[in-house]
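User: Structure please.
Assistant: Input sequence and predicted structure:
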Amino acid sequence: MSLDQISFYKQKLKAAHDDIDAQAIGIIKRLKESNFDGYIVGGAVRDLLVGLKPKDFDIATNALPNEVKKKVSYCFIIGRRFKLVHARRGDKIFEIATYRREAKPEELSTEVSIDLPFVEENFFGNLKEDSFRRDFTVNALFYDPTTEELVDYCGGLSDIHSQTLRMIGDPTERIKEDPIRILRAIRLSQKLTFQLESTLREAILMNAEEIQKGVSPRRREEWIKFFRLENIESALWDLFDLDIFKQVLPSFHELFLNEHQREEFLCYTRKFDELGFNFHDTVELFAAVIYSYLLATNEHYSKIKIRELSDDKKFQDFCKDELGAFKAEMISIEISIGFIYYLTKKETYLTKGERRQKALLYNPHFNLAMKLGLLSGELTSIDFDFWMSEKERYANPENSTI
């Protein structure tokens, strides 16, 4: 990359300074006052360079965890296998990681661990060594907002310039090292609207079965992030085309093989934003996805017997083992789906007394049931206006005309 291009990206970071969390800058200043390195690293730098506003600001340093804890206030060390420091600032947590390096063969041979593939995470290194330990080149960028220093050992800037997502090192080896990187690669390429580098895409396709080795909680977190993507439809197609559904979401694989069901499902996903689903709430996220799946795979939604779903092992396995939905989330979702029925009975509601009307309007499942009912078509805009006016009537009794 030319010096002019590097200068361009440095200016871009400088212009985005206001988007960098002031508390992250404060932590970096504190580390540097104690003669340690301090850089914003990874996704935050990447997002700033592509014009996105970062949600999290991870920090990298050469200070050891105990040294960070001594020098930076309100810190605590987490992890046994992989020690990190969390700095609490109000309701925010800033992750501070010491540089890592590859372990030497003789070091690994002397280690005893039940998590042998991760033993090397415990070896600290320098900034350059830490860069090559990261997954994708665009995640191996380090930026010091106090000096405007931008560090790129892995060619991340070139890949941002060409809009390419490239694995650091051999893609097959890195996927086998951590199969969840398959999901991260697809998700990040969709989030950034980057192309998967050809050898990375080939490695994903040839090693799709490796994703089965990824533990369910980490897959769950990736599914949640997938459904929060703006271009979810394109992301789902990538998961299908690269055989990922077939390996860990077989129910979605069958869904996508059926053209009619697939189009029905995608049609429902296009409504998520306009209906105001709050995907920061995992109950609402999984409810929208699961109900869309049920609607698409049943010819008539009236045939969905919600009380039977709890006893349907195939459906429960789909929710729990494939999507990773928790039992508590599923109970809430099933109740909300069942609650739609009561929202279709306006006449019955109007015959009830004030106490019972309020009980329905302020039921904790009311709002989600409304959104799901509008999603399926069981409720109309007229129904929505009626129920909202009823809630407003009880919230402001002076407006009542009854």
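The first strand starts at residue 39 and ends at 41.
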